[in-house]
User: Which sequence fits this backbone?
């Protein structure tokens, strides 16, 4: 397997974990070559996750933003309410296959924590989820869901008490219990093989959406849009379209927070620089001295100071373009989709919805745009009620 | 200003040779620069040397120290709150080496070194008389560029090996080690522990089979009894979190408390 995406990627890890990532890579390669693993995963994705998820032709939304067509890939309808389950169930199957009965995970918004807890419950694995105490406060219903699903939620008090600190703590647990424990990383970030493995598991989104778009449009979409925090839903829908450069633009929407100029955002590509965080070389938010900066986003799931290394490469090569939308714009997107299509999105993909008018301004109205609607908005109601009050 | 005298790796070799000649374990003390405040650092470093430390590891604070336990995490947060940068750590090293001819290493995470620039860092560290660098999140696979820059200026990039490191990996990597080999006593993060792992002897034996360099053991070592138990097993010990805990817990004279603590460890390492 390839561990790098151009100058990005790699394995910046304590020595203790180096044999573990080698073991993981070998196990993953072996599993993917085994038809029985593919059969089991395919069965779970169909019967338990509810795949394929629909593609919704959002005509009232398209009219509202002035685009010819907007197609929504409905990951909000996947079990547990977001795309996170695609990778969680794949990795949990892998953990079980590797004989690791203890799983640790990190979570920001709680969606990956819930997905991990559900997958571990299904497969009979012990599940421990690290979550910043600031995020636990923001996403209380998801904390309860994880506990209902039998997971232990450990609050993280260090640093900024958000996703990056939860990743640190999950890695510390992993380094301590490496022989018995599988680290179920939630985004396409971290050391090799995670960015590749998570992309592969999430690529089911793009494979389905590409076929569904062809059926619906008779051609490929002109553009694929997705929100980008660590970037797992985005790389999942982008991956199969990467060779379609003649027909299909790729556009990632980062969290602009209170605006890039304020410094209070989580846009690692638009507002960051190259560095090393959580085991990988990628675009990160940092000070001149190389300290990781605090981030801000109204959406806990995007509130992370780095991005998957493959996105860093796609940005550098120009194959994908990246923009940022602010908290306020995301709230408009949240409301707009709710009112035009009767779909309450999560705040994360609400950033992608908010970008649609900008796409029309930049590229004109004659465009068929595929949007990854990565999750549903139930978890965000309290945040949105507070923000709109 | 450039510090004169022995260069880089040679300082490490000298430190371990002295300890060996005196039939004792070399003692390396780790302290986070700028903890608990910037003004305390020079006196604390001197105190560690007075107590008998053979090597000093200057901890370069980082916002996300994923190989460290709570003690070093907290020290890092406070040091960063005090505005400490890698340049400050180089200054602290230069001052200490200039005044005492000590063997000083820097220990910190990849990103601050990367942003400083590997080449600039190698030049400035050599100029400051720094002996070597330990980067816990930069395994051999990722260290080619940094290692080249560091080695060209005569400094050692010290390798860490863990109980999980398999023999074939040791065989591949240990011959490239410089200065000394840092063995991690346990699978886990830094931090004081009650006892040293029972499988340390077997682990050190596995490493010894692949290197003639001195071996120092770190992570979890916190008491003289731990050090005494390691006589004849390793060539040196690294104490970090326990030293920071002593600094944190001292009510009055912090340097005196640290000096006494280090003396107790150093005495325990004498045969």
Assistant:
């Amino acid at each position: 397997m390839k561990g790098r995406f151009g100058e990005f990627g790699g394995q910046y890890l304590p020595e203790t974990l180096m044999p573990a990532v080698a073991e993981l890579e070998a196990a993953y390669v072996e599993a993917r070559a085994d038809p029985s693993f593919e059969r089991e995963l395919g069965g779970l994705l169909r019967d338990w996750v509810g795949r394929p998820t629909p593609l919704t032709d959002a005509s009232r939304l398209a009219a509202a933003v002035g685009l010819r067509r907007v197609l929504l890939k409905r990951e909000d309808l996947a079990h547990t309410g977001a795309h996170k389950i695609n990778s969680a169930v794949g990795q949990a199957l892998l953990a079980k296959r590797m004989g690791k009965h203890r799983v640790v995970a990190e979570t920001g918004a709680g969606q990956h924590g819930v997905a991990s807890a559900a997958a571990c419950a299904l497969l009979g694995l012990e599940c421990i989820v690290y979550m910043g105490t600031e995020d636990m406060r923001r996403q209380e219903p998801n904390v309860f869901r994880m506990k209902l699903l039998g997971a232990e939620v450990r609050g993280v008090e260090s640093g900024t008490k958000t996703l990056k600190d939860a990743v640190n703590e999950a890695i510390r647990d992993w380094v301590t219990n490496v022989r018995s424990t599988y680290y179920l990383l939630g985004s396409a970030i971290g050391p090799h093989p995670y960015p590749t493995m998570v992309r592969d598991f999430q690529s089911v989104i793009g494979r389905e959406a590409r076929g569904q778009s062809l059926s619906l449009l008779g051609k490929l979409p002109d553009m694929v849009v997705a929100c980008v925090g660590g970037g797992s839903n985005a790389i999942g829908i982008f991956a199969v379209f990467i060779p379609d450069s003649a027909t299909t633009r790729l556009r990632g929407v980062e969290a602009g927070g209170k605006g890039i100029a304020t410094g209070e955002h989580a846009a690692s590509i638009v507002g960051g620089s190259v560095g090393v965080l959580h085991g990988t070389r990628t675009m990160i938010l940092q000070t001149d001295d190389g300290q990781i900066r605090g981030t801000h986003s109204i959406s806990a799931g995007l509130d992370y100071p780095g991005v998957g290394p493959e996105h860093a490469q796609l940005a550098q090569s120009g194959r994908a373009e990246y923009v940022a939308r602010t908290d306020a714009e995301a709230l408009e997107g949240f409301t707009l989709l709710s009112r035009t299509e009767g779909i309450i999105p999560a705040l994360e993909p609400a950033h992608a919805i908010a970008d649609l008018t900008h796409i029309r301004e930049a590229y004109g109205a004659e465009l068929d745009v595929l949007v990854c609607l990565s999750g549903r908005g139930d978890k965000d109601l309290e945040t949105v009620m507070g923000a709109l009050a | 200003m450039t510090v004169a005298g022995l260069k880089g790796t040679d300082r490490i070799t000298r430190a371990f040779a002295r300890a060996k000649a005196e039939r004792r374990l070399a003692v390396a003390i780790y302290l986070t620069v700028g903890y608990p405040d910037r003004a305390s650092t020079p006196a604390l470093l001197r105190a560690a040397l007075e107590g008998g430390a053979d090597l000093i590891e200057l901890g370069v604070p980082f916002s996300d120290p994923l190989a460290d336990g709570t003690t070093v995490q907290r020290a890092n947060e406070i040091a960063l709150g005090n505005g400490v940068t890698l340049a400050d750590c180089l200054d602290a090293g230069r001052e200490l080496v200039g005044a005492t001819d000590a063997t000083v290493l820097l220990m910190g995470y990849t990103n601050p070194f990367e942003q400083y620039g590997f080449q600039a860092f190698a030049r400035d560290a050599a100029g400051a008389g720094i002996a070597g660098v330990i980067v816990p999140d930069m395994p051999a696979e990722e260290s080619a560029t940094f290692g080249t820059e560091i080695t060209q200026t005569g400094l050692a990039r010290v390798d860490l090996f863990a109980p999980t490191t398999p023999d074939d990996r040791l065989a591949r990597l240990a011959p490239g080690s410089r200065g000394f080999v840092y063995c991690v006593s346990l699978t886990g993060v830094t931090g004081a522990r009650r006892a040293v792992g029972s499988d340390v002897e077997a682990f050190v034996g596995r490493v010894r089979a692949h290197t003639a360099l001195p071996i120092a053991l770190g992570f979890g070592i916190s008491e003289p009894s731990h050090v005494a138990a390691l006589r004849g097993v390793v060539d040196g010990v690294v104490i970090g979190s326990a030293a920071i805990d002593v600094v944190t817990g001292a009510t009055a004279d912090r340097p005196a408390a640290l000096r006494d603590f280090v003396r107790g460890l150093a005495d325990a390492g004498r045969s």
Observations:
- Residues 194-217 of chain A form the longest helix (24 residues).
- Chain A touches chain B at residues 10-20, 158-159, 164-165, 168, 171-172, 175-179, 275-279, 284, 286, 288-292 (CB under 8 Å).
- The mean pLDDT of chain A is 97.
